Amino acid sequence: METPAKSPDGSEKSPQCRELVTSDTGSTLCTSSRSESVWTSASRSRWDIYRKPVIVVAVGAAVFLVGVVITSLSCFLTNNKAYKMSGPAFLSLGLMLLVCGLVWIPIIRKKLKQRQKSQFLQSLKSFFFNR
């Protein structure tokens, strides 16, 4: 007597299912997608939401301050041209990162409000049409 084939998780398969090739492509695509947070309804903490822009703002402020220090050193040291060239570069890079991070925060807030409105409208829609 022939025993049915068992899958790796221990469940038995029918003879028709033996010929089918199992694929985990769907599950790996879903878990590796960038928009995974759209499909999950778990709420995230404020640190999880604002972590990246806060880090960009902090790094931008630090680089900007380094640029200020290097530029001020170039005023006092007249012999070194490296300070005169690298000071403005650090200033501009730090200012760019600082502004990008500060602009990123309102964009995230707007997206969160839109997502809350969308979830509210979806719940209203399901309430009225699923009766």
Give a quick summary of the entry:
The protein is mainly alpha-helical.
Q: Mean pLDDT, nearest integer?
A: 76
Could you state the order of secondary-structure elements as H and E? HHHHH
Overall body shape:
rod-shaped
In percent, how much strand structure appears in the residues? under 5%
Distance between the termini: 51 Å
* Number of H- or I-type helical stretches: 5
InterPro entries: PIRT
Main location: membrane
Keywords: Membrane, Transmembrane, Transmembrane helix
Protein name: PIRT protein
Describe this structure in words.
The chain is mostly helical and 131 residues long. Residues 27-33 and 35-39 have low confidence and may be disordered. The chain has a domain at 69-110. Helix 4 runs antiparallel to helix 5. The protein has helices at residues 15-18, 25-32, 36-39, 46-76, 81-129. The protein is rod-shaped, with a radius of gyration of 28 Å. It comes from Ploceus nigricollis. The chain crosses the membrane at residues 54-77, 89-108.
